[in-house]
Amino acid sequence: MEHILDTSARYIDQGVYEGPKSINRTTGELSEVADGIAVVEAFSHVVTFRTDEGLVLFDTSLDSFAPRVIKALRGWSDDPVHTISYTHGHNDHIGGAAAFLDEARDRGRTRPRVIGHANVKPRIDRYRLTNGYNAVINDRQFRAATGRSTAVSSGWSSGRFGPETWVEPDTTFEDRMGIEVGGVRFDLRHDKGETDDHSWAWVPERKAICAGDFVIWVFPNAGNPQKVQRYPIEWAKALRAMMALEPELLLPAHGLPVSGRERIATMLGDMARALELVADQTLRMMNAGARLDEIIHSVSVPAELLEKPYLRPAYDEPEFVVRNIWRLYGGWYDGNPAHLKPSPDAALASELARLAGGAGVLARRAGEVAAAGDMRLACHLAEFAVQAAPDDVGAHEVRRDVYRQRRSQELSQMARGIYGAAAEDSARIAGE
Fold it and tell me: Candidates 3.60.21.10, 1.20.272.10, 3.60.15.30, 3.40.50.1860; correct CATH number of 4-271?
């Protein structure tokens, strides 16, 4: 079997793309990528350094994946876990921490130290406050996009969000923190990117970077429509800071590890450039007084960038990043005065249906427009039809078909999830 580093080299050097599952693998298998450095591919990965004092882990994956991760690690090393460093507080990165603490307790070993940015605890507090909401949106994003079995196995549709026990960091930092474990130095650095509590690590003697979600082998997740603020400009700056260190081993939390200074520089530079292009275009139009609607339909990223195997819009996409830049710098008002204090959606839909001759007319037109290929307009019309007549089975059948067609044409998992959930809602009302 091809070594994981050889696979990433082939993909990058030859521009090969064999689908998202070939890049973001959740096998639970361990690969040693350098002497004393291992990666367990999970949801997300667990990167491990072996030192004279014990293992140093970056992230712990989901609670449902933790037993597999521990089993894989124990097949590689029986050394105690000395330190767990969170790259950030997302559930798929810290949810499995309790299992590692339990293992240490059960074996009579010292409790591992847990390090994270100072904003990890406030994130966990927010998750507790909005647990139901996060459970709903993750079910929509993962189940409706990829199928129920994937969601269940990944722990996203259990009826709650997060592990039974959140493990908060016992050691925190604000900007930078240097630690040394067993003769190995780890330089922890905070930068905003996918989150406001993100950190990455530089391991100078190994010329290695633990990148967390700054590198995810898809277009940067800087626009997620159902999640809190992301930071595209700061993300790009972090990537360029990584480049300046000239790393020879890149260890992301999703996707494949990468070796080779020039290969890594190319990858990081391409990702930074993509984010900078979206940000520059968006801010230029904002400064010129453009509305959000105009910006969304004007900003673009060159196809040659989006065709890179590590920049495919398979999870997030540039259009969503535009909205996050607007939200960060411009607030929630989109420039359309009618949207400032709008009529209820149902009232607007009812008036449009009355003008058109009924909800059935809108639904039929939605089907015609979809058949002609204008899926954006078709979704508007289908939505108006069911909002004007929420119990109309025929309207919901059209809406179901429109959103199924839309979902089949989308590349990003986020878009597929939302459109798939809408189709399921209408299918249920239509009696399917």
Answer: 3.60.15.30
